[in-house]
Specification:
Helix content is about 75%, strand content about 0%. It is mostly helical. The chain folds into two domains: about 5-60 and about 180-245, no CATH class; about 65-170, no CATH class. Helix 3 packs antiparallel against helix 7 (about 150-205).
Amino acid sequence: MTQITYYAYTKYDLALLFTLLTLIDSRLAELETDNARIGELRTLLHQSVLRYDVAYKQSMKSFLTETIGQKDTARDKITKVIEWVARYWTELPDEEDALRGRRIYQPFKDFDYRRDEALMAQNGKWQNIAQVYAQADRLADLQAMGLAALVQKANTLTAEIQQLMQQRQTDSASYQKGEMAAARQEAEQLLAQVIQYLNALLVVSPDQAVEQTAQYIQQDFNKTEQQYQQGRKHGKKDDEGDVTPVEPEA
């Protein structure tokens, strides 16, 4: 007789748990049965998975993301102008002007500044460039080239982007402690109820379709735990994944 056993899925991260939930939700959707309780649990779990999905996506983004993107686009345009102008000055016939251009252009090469990198990388590299430009002789170059104001705007935008990114991280953490935590708890409880009922049904009223579904669900648990253990080998430090049998409902 098939009995579903499961690992301590409460230790899984949000994404891995969602993967498990969607797998089991799919298994139940494919189960053909007239059992009213299974139908009820199937509906409740599916609705819970949908709420989990919404909460998870919301926890991964923020209304600040759009603002950050707008400021990053503005910074990209400004730094591109600074870089282009500096490169143009390196080609000027006057040696002093060309030297100024090389001095302002060189930090872009030294720090490998690229506008297609992740925001954190761009922030750090621009701050390094800004430190070079803050030196008295470089500041004089910028003023002579008419770039001082643009550099200051890039500095301001970088500081604002950093602040907004920190705020977004705080907002996301707060959301995960609230809505996301509630959605997860609900899903975990319903998942336990589903397994408990299926195990009980297999004891008191064996059914081939239910038993087949239980076998599929067991495979889903095993595969998910395998993914979890592989993740731990790459540095995660969660608790050990002992198999926990689900006791049938009385």
